[in-house]
Each structure stands twice: as structure tokens, then as C-alpha cells.
Fold this protein.
Amino acid sequence: MSKYGKEILIGVIPVVIAFLAFIGLNVVPVLFMSVIVAALFLMNRARTGAGMGATADRKAKSRTPSYLTFDDIGGQDRAKHELKEALDFLIKHEEIKKLGIRPLKGILLEGPPGTGKTLMAKAAAHYTNSVFVSASGSEFVEMYVGVGASRVRDLFKDARSRAQKEGKDSAIVFIDEIDVIGGKRAGGQHREYDQTLNQLLTEMDGIHTAETPRILIMAATNRKEMLDSALLRPGRFDRHITVDLPDRKGRMHILNIHAKNKPLAEEVLLDRVADETFQFSGAQLESVMNEAAIYALRDGLEIIGQKHLSLAVDKVMLGEKSDRESTREEKERVAYHELGHAIAAELLNPGSVSQVALSPRGQALGYVRHNPQKEQYLYTKEYIESKIMVALGGAVAEEMFYGGRSTGSRNDFEQAINMVKTMMDAGLTRLGIIDREMTTKEELMKENAAIMEDLTRRTRELLERHRTVFIQSLDILMGEETLSGDQFRHMLQEQTGLLHESA
Ligand code: ATP
């Protein structure tokens, strides 16, 4: 209405003035008044317009910024440093050109899921004042040949046109899960993958320093060894940055970042959470903070306590408590199985058990919670063997009390086998230092079986000596569903004392 009203007014006023002049009236005062009114109107509009702009600006500033900086990424100090160094190529392009250095075209971020690779790419775009365009490898895979390739073309076109529109000199194209399109081109692979990869290589080869916007491609993968060598050769993705699981200091930093918008009780010690979350990724740590807030909400509280954080760590590590009801026999078997793990763990690494629980969580029907471990990156043969024995403890306990195993040991065996593989690759077995290509499957299988047999025997010998602890602990576990580490240690020490006395 107001829009049309204004137009009608603009049309009517000159007609009225012309009519008044035509019938002989003096229109000068009317004209004078109109000019003053129009001037006042324009001045007022300019003022309120500026005011509105300022409010909008203030609003925008008070909102969370849509960009992400390196300060928003916890830990990863080395990766951030390496990345910034590489990004300086994009920022100081003139100096680089003078020295005749070829432009940096691709940076590959490699590391486990949820460690912040996407965050790094976004922060890189902010750091270099570039446009950020992203896609995931799986988005390029289509049933129809050629679609993937044309999507790659569109992605680069989009990056260039957005940079021009936004007046930026550079653009970062981020491709997550690059292994989906950039996997090794062994014979017989799908043609579609080839065309998509070829298009990506063509786009990379077409990047020149002279042209603006300058394009930098960043890609992320969890499986670098799967990538085609054509992608990794100089001039393509020749900068590789490892984005690893955070260490204790990194975990602390990430927890603090995600605690910023959360009301924590004064008693909360994030240090303790950092200790308990050994080998958690950034995404898992974010989830711990979020789940803790949900637990506080469930308790009808407005602040998050240490208890909520502890529950959240369990949930992220083992899954939500489930209400699966199992029979008494099944529960008893699970109790023996978990006690097998716990007794082996405590005997081989005293003080390591924090709780044995019979409540089902995620896929597990029971679990042993371990005390925080010291950060460690080198493992001796003895250490790995003791870990394998703890993993085998569950199955061995079932054999001791039921004469056979159940399907409950599947994950334990998987873990044990992976650890044996690590031992083999590190030259810690009787096979000596091996190259898997030069070793036959039979040799590997034979050694694996020998190690497993030996460690199963040693675990059985260890557990057999503590049968009474199993029986005493079983009663408590069946009645209360949990057994604290201290309770359990006390029984174990009593029995060990008796053993020493009788020896
Ligand atoms: P994927 O390999 O599965 O794609 P990614 O390594 O790209 O994972 P991101 O997508 O960057 O992981 O991280 C997922 C979420 O986890 C982030 O949105 C953030 O909340 C949290 N996160 C991960 N790493 C960090 C970190 N270092 N600092 C702060 N938050 C992090």
C-alpha cells in the first residue's frame, strides 16, 4: 500500500500544481512548501536508513561469526603450523613468483575421522581470505558415466564465479573423502571413477599462479595409502599434513572450546575428562560435552556436573544404556566374561580397573571401565602381549566356567588379531622383520595361531589361580550390577595374599 501510495503521490502532486497554475492561482508558496517537505523527508530517511544499517551491523557482530579461525580448532598445533606455512604460498604469491617457485596446488589432510580436517580447511579459507567451496567424494559417484566429471567441473566453476562475485583473489576447493574418487586405479575399476579423477587432475593441471582467482585444492582422507599415485605426485597433492588424534593437551584444549557456551559447575575438572578420554577424536570430545549437557537437562539441572561428564564419556565410548533384558544364565555368563577381562587387566597392570559393570550399553552386555592411561606412543612386545591377554580374558573365563565360548568374544578377538598384526609389522614376532609382500599367507597364519595359542594358555594359567575371586565377585555383580575397582582390587589382594601364604 505504502509503495503505491508514494507513486500515486508523486504523480498527483505535479498534476495538482499544474492545474492550480492553469486556473490562475499563485503556486510559488505551494512549490516552496513542497521542496521543504521533500527535503525533510529525504533527510529523515537517510538518518533512519543509517540507523537501521548500524543496528543490522551490530546484530551481525553479536551473532556467532560464520567463519572459522585456527583458534577455534583445539590441539593440532603441529598440523596448524604446517598448514599455515603452506598457506603462505597463497598469500605471498608475488614473492613466490619472483623466486620461480611453482604454485602450491593441493594440500592433502590425512587422519582418523572427526579430528578436525574439515575445520582446518574452513580456517584456511578465513586465514587466506579466500572463498570456500566444498564437496564430498561420495557426491561425485553416480550411476551415470560422466556425471561425476561434470560435477568436478561445476565445483571449480562455482569457486571461480563466487570469488569474482565476492571480490576475493583466491578460492579454496575442499574435497572430503577424496579416496572415493581418487582410489588406486587397478584394472577393472568402475569407469566413472576414472573420469571423475581425470577431470580433477585436469582441473589441477589448469591452475596457474598468474590467473585470479588463485585456486587451492584441499582434500581429506582417512586412507592415504589407498590414493592413486597420480594424485600424489609433485605438482598435485604434494603437501601432506597429518591431522592426528589429539594428545592430552589437545583434548584439554578441545574440551575447553566446546565448554565455552556451557554452564559448568565449579566442581568440574575438565582435566579429569581429558584423562579419561584417551584416544578420543575431536568429534567425540564435542559429543561428550553435548551429551553431558543432555544428562544435566534430564536431571532438571541448569548446570553440568562432573557426574554428567562421566556418564557422557561412557556413553560416547560404549553407547547408550540399553534396556535389553537378558536371562539370568546369560547375565551370569556375561559377568564371568567381564571378570575375566578385569582380573587379567588388574593382574597384568595393577590399578588399571575402575569399574566392572553388567548393565548393557550399545552392543555390549557388560563392560570393564579402565582408569586413565598414561599417554604412550611406543609399545614393547610385553606390553602388547599383556593387552592381548586382557582381550582374551573374557573367552578364557567362559571356557573355565562353561567349558566353551560364546559369540560375546567376537570383538575381543578382532582387537587381539589387530594387535598381533601390529607385532608382526614391527618385527616383534618369531618371523623377524618382514615385508608382507614377501611373506606367504600360510606363514602369517601359522605365526598368528602360535601367538594366540601361547597367550591363551598363559591367560588361562593366570585366571585359574584366581577362581575364588571370580566366584566372590560374581555374587556382587549379579546383585548390584556394578563392582567398583577398589572393591574388586581388595578381593584380589586378599586372595593373592592367601596364595603367597600357602606358597
Ligand atoms: P571426517 O574425516 O569424518 O570428515 P573431519 O576430520 O573432517 O572428519 P571435522 O568434520 O572437522 O572432522 O570435525 C567434526 C566436528 O568435531 C567438528 O564440527 C567439531 O565440533 C569437532 N572437532 C573435531 N576436531 C576438533 C578440534 N581439533 N577442535 C575442536 N573441535 C573439533
Remarks:
- The chain has four domains: 3-63, 70-242, 248-318, 328-502.
